[in-house]
Amino acid sequence: MKTLKNYFIIAVLFMLASQSAFTQYYFKSYDFSPFGTRNDIGRSIEKRTPSNGWSIAGYTNTTTGGYDWTYTKLNAAGIPVCTATLGFSLADSCFSHIEINSNNPPFRRAVLSGFYRNTSGIEKASWSILDSSCVHLLSKQILDTAKSQYRQTSMTPYGFANSGFIQMYSNGAYKNKMLVTNYSFSGSMSWGYKYFSYTPSNDEAYSICYQPVGTAYCVAGRTNALKGYGTKYDVLVMKLTSAGIPSWKKIYKLPASVNSNAYKIIPMTDGGYVICGWTNMYDTTTNDIWVLRINTAGTVMWSYTYGYPGVNEIGHSIVYNASNNTLTLTGYLTSASN
């Protein structure tokens, strides 16, 4: 067994412009009371401005009832400033968060998203807002009978948008369908839609971004619409207007035996997008990181996979560095020795 304990970790890396190497600035792990007895899973990290600090969100099993949401605010040296734990008696999970810094009106807040379980144990897409002192201000969740999750929250000029999926009953079975909601900075809903897409397939959104070129949203995830509605998936991308109306949706189909997924989509300055995820296109026994560049109409501009034979690599996130016109991605790999 590789490890018996999970801790929050943060590593700050600086890329050296003059050589193809990197140096580690600092590496920290975090354990909270009751020490040595809980698992702390970090799922999201954000840079806080103007303090140059950081914040981490995820989930922790501090209680006997299962996992709760957790948020830790850090200073520039990685020292905890404040923490918060949110949840109910059943297992809850937080997958994403953002830091909001508004000048009009002036405030600083964190928005966390994922799911809280209701009293029946059903996962319900939820979000919570914390103030700058890690104090809970507001939470909202979808109040119906269907299972749902938010997988990512993204900031917009008007507030924040959430992407995920919600369960629908179709042709005698429950299927997941893309879910997108849009809120103001104060937490008032602007709009929210579930997208039936390719019924009776599973269509799941794992990432959303706001594109200032054309004031649009773009959602990325997966669908099994072209794989016989089974366990194999293709990457699905859907572009929305600022009002949440679909402009186009595309499936990036690979051969029937190939499985793939998109975990992150980011906007590019030309109006297009970059998508990061994984596929087993070139390594049938394991997965490789897959990065896909599309234009504003969804047409593929280039596509690359990154990995080693026999090693499982998953791409989870990617950022664009405008200063040197590069992309930096992160994820994980699992080898046979682990």
Q: What's this entry about, in short?
A:
The protein has about 350 residues and is mainly beta. It has strands spanning about 10-15, 20-30, 40-50, 55-65, 65-75, 80-85, 95-105, 105-115, 125-130, 135-140, 150-155, 160-170, 175-185, 190-195, 205-210, 215-225, 235-240, 245-250, 260-265, 275-280, 290-295, 300-305, 310-320, 325-335.
Task: Give a verbal description of the structure.
This protein is mainly beta. The protein has a domain at 33-267: 7 Propeller (Methylamine Dehydrogenase, Chain H), CATH 2.130.10. Helices cover 0% and strands 62% of the residues. The protein is built from no helices and 24 strands. It has a 4-stranded antiparallel β-sheet, with no helix packed on it. The protein has a 4-stranded antiparallel β-sheet with strand order 7-8-9-10, with no helix packed on it. Strands 11-12-13-14 form a 4-stranded antiparallel β-sheet, with no helix packed on it. β15 and β16 form a beta hairpin. The radius of gyration is 20 Å and the shape is globular. The model is unreliable at 1-5 and 11-24 (pLDDT under 50).
